[in-house]
Amino acid sequence: MNRNARNTDPLTSHLAAETDQDLRRIEKLILELVQDRAFTDEDLVNMWDMAAQANLVPWHSPSGLRTRRKSLSDLELLEIVGIGKTRMGRSCRIWKVVS
Q1: DSSP of the chain, one letter per residue?
Q2: What is the pLDDT of residues 7-35, one digit of tens each?
Q3: pTM for the whole thing?
Q4: 18, CA 20 to 30 Å: which among 25, 55, 86, 90?
C-alpha cells in the first residue's frame, strides 16, 4: 500500500507518508542485517543494537523490530527454519530470509 502524500494534503498526511517510508527502510535494513543467517527475535535485537552502536542503522525499539520482522514474514520474505530457546529458556522461532 502506497501512501505518498500530495502537495495539497494536510501536514498529517505528509507525516504519515514519511513514517511509512521510514518503516519500509527499517524492513530493508533488517533484511540486509540478517541475510544469510538464521536468527531469533532476540538475535535480531542484539544484531540491531550492535549495528546502531556502530552508527550503521538508526536506534529502534525491540518491539518495533519484532513488528517489522512480523511484517516481513507476512510478506513471505522470511520463513521459519526451526525452533530455538530464548535466554530465559522459552521456545522461540528461528527465522531466515527466503531464498
Answers
A1: ---PPPTTS-HHHHHHHHHHHHHHHHHHHHHHHHTTS-B-HHHHHHHHHHHHHTTSS----HHHHHHHHHHHHHTTSEEEEEEEE-TTS-EEEEEEE--
A2: 676 765 545 555 445 558 999 999 999 99
A3: 0.76
A4: 55
